[in-house]
Amino acid sequence: MISSSKRQKVVLAADASCTGERIDLFITRSLEGLSRKGAKKALDGGQVFVDGKVVRRAGHLLEGGEVISLTADMPVSDPSLPSLPVLLRDDHLLAVDKPFRLPSHAPDKGLRGAIECVAAMLAEEGAPSVPVMLHRLDADTTGVLLFALSKTGNRELSLQFSERRVEKVYLALVAGSPPDAWVVRNRLRAGVRGRTVAVEQGGQKAETAFRTLARSKGVALVEARPRTGRTHQIRAHLAGAGFPLLGDTLYGGP
Question: In Å, how far from its chain's centre is CA 33?
Answer without folding.
Answer: 21
